[in-house]
Amino acid sequence: MKKKASFKDLINGSKPVLVQFSAEWCGPCKAMAPIVSEVARKVGDKATILKIDVDRNRAVAAKYAIRSVPTFILFQNGKIQWQSPGMQSAHALVELLEGAAANT
Questions:
Q1: Three-state secondary structure readout of 36-53
Q2: Looking at residue 100, what DSSP letter applies?
Q3: 70 falls within a domain
Q4: CB–CB of 96/74 below 8 Å?
Q5: Per-residue pLDDT for 93 more than 60?
Q6: Is residue 37 one of the residues assigned to a domain?
Q7: pLDDT tens-digit readout, 17-47
């Protein structure tokens, strides 16, 4: 059985990791669900996409100073490469991830 990688292991890797910080009660976060699914489908295994609930993961949300949801952060090699609060377009996220994947 393959061990599930930890959040720390994932963000420290060379593969781009897009994290969506969200909450169950957040309408825009729910509206982003089909967009994020489309992005995941388009980028395939070039990048990892995670969703973190800020209410269930308060320590992680505090560590990255998440003040509003949704907030997206792109990690690569343990560093924040990009961060933006609010809704994002599928096109912009796909371009961001493909550009980051090309730099691995």
A1: HHHHHHHHHHHCEEEEEE
A2: H
A3: yes
A4: yes
A5: yes
A6: yes
A7: 999 999 999 999 999 999 999 999 999 999 9
Phi, psi angles (nearest 5°) of residue 88:
-130, 155
Alpha carbon 58 to its chain centroid, in Å, reads 16
- The CATH number for 57's domain is 3.40.30.10
Distance between CA atoms of residues 55 and 31, nearest Å: 18
| Pick from 98, 102, 4: nearest CA to 44 | 98
Under the banding of pLDDT at 50, 70 and 90, the label for residue 103 is: confident
Q: 28 by DSSP, 3-state: which?
A: helix
Q: Give catalytic residue positions.
A: 26, 29
Give the total number of structural domains in the chain: 1
Please choose, from the candidates 7, 74, 81, 82, the residue with its C-alpha nearest in 3D space to the C-alpha of residue 43: 74
Range of the domain at 20: 15-102
Tokens 């930890």 belong to 6
Average pLDDT over residues 43-53: 96
